[in-house]
Amino acid sequence: MKRSSLLFALIGALTLGHGAVTAQTIGIGAGIAAAGTNIGQAGGELNDFFQQEQITYGGVADRIGFYGSINGRLGLLDFMRITADASYIYFQAAQVTLQSASINQADSTVNATFEVGTSMIPIYVGGAIELPLPIIKPYIGAQVGYTYINRTYSYVRGSDQLRDVDLSNKSTGDPEFGLAISAGVDLALGIATVEVGGRYTLANLFSTSGDDKPMRYLELGAAVYFGGGF
Asked: Which of 65, 69, 124, 181 has its CA 20 to 30 A from that of 98?
């Protein structure tokens, strides 16, 4: 037998013996999300309105939001799995105050307060390892992915020049690429698996440029997976 054929035979025997593909499951999840101060950063449409002039603005207070997700997992061996999920995260509007801004590259400055609402659609894929215990299975994982960030702006108060600006109820999206770290436990309940855990996401880790600030948030919640079992 050729050495290459023998090698493939050994690999096949090892993977089959250890359960190469153990399960394929689909699940749904929900929970809360804690936003850092930069999740609702003004940016985007405000910069466009001021024709790329430098603007400064006050921070957005930490916000608690909510998320829902559709999750998939593919088990490898007895202790590894490939994971993928798509979520929708919503944070209530927070007030952002422009501290200085030039209009049409003029010398005059204005100030105003806007309400900035933020929602995100993150799509992530990665892997996890877990302890192959019968019922309660701790795990840790890491994922990389893409996040579409949508912001809505509403004028609250400020300089008269901005009272009727074309920003109210206008939305803009910014694509970001980042990394997420997760940990938690799986509860194998026979007909379903319940996952309880958290994920810390550095949403723009790989797409930060210029004066962009790091955007990070934490999710805590649970998901239920049907079929396959772990």
From this structure: 65
63-76/21-35 β-pairing: antiparallel
Per-residue model confidence as pLDDT tens digits over 150-177 = 877 777 887 776 666 666 555 566 688 9
Query: Which of 135-144, 156-165, 194-203, 205-214 has the lowest average pLDDT?
Result: 156-165
**CA-CA distance, 230 to 128, in Å (whole number)?**
13
**Burial bucket for residue 60 (CB in 10 Å: 0-12, 13-18, 19+):** buried
What is the number of residues in the chain?
Answer: 230
- φ/ψ of 6, rounded to 5, equals -65, -40
CB 108 within 8 A of CB 102: yes
Of 77, 85, 111, 118, nearest in space to 97 by CA: 111
State phi, psi for 39 to the nearest 5 degrees: -60, -40
Nearest-angstrom CA–CA distance, 192 and 163: 54
Question: Cα–Cα distance between 184 and 87 in angstroms, integer?
Answer: 18
The correct answer on CATH 2.40.160.20 for the domain covering 21-226 is yes
> Is 83 within 8 Å of 45 (Cβ atoms)?
no
Q: What's residue 202's pLDDT?
A: 93
Q: Are 142 and 182 in contact (CB under 8 A)?
A: yes
Distance of CA 21 to the CA centre of its chain: 27
What's the whole-number mean pLDDT along residues 80-84? 95
pLDDT of residue 170: 53
All structural domains of the chain with their residue ranges: 21-226
